[in-house]
Amino acid sequence: MINKNWIPIGLIIIAITMLMATDFFPKLNDLIYIPKPVVIVFLLLILFLGFNTTPLLKNDTLRSHFLWGVTTVFFLMGLIIVFSLLGGNSQVGLSLSSPALWIVLAISVFELYCEYKKMKAAQPTP
Fold first, then answer.
1. The pLDDT of residue 1
2. Would you say 20 and 80 are in contact if contact means Cβ atoms under 8 Å apart?
3. In the 8-state DSSP scheme, what is residue 124?
4. Could you tell me which of 46, 70, 67, 45 has the C-alpha nearest to residue 57?
5. CA end-to-end span of the chain, whole Å?
6. Is this model's pTM higher than 0.85 or not?
7. CA separation for the pair 54, 5 (Å, rounded)
8. Residue 50 neighbours by CB under 8 Å, 6+ apart
9. Structure confidence by residue, pLDDT tens digits, 11-47
């Protein structure tokens, strides 16, 4: 049986993947026509509900914040790489050749490094 805590996380992953897929492959909407406002409202609703009901995000431990940050960064970069390799082109400029993406990635990695140092400093030494 699936743990109920993972359902909102799964919804977040599905919603982010769908948003990125429609950005990289806008012709996907031609296969099954769903009006754009309906798709956007649906995906934003899933994201909102997912972030507000996820126990992992409500847990205030440094470790959970760090793990969530690392997972998010790797997942988003993985999606960008896979969708680029599949021949998709981002409509909003998310590409591996974009300097803005690399700057944001560098800032994210630096923040994760700072969180990691805080997490290690907060651990009791045996």
1. 41
2. yes
3. P
4. 67
5. 37
6. no
7. 7
8. 8, 9, 11, 12, 15
9. 778 878 888 888 888 887 777 677 778 777 877 877 7
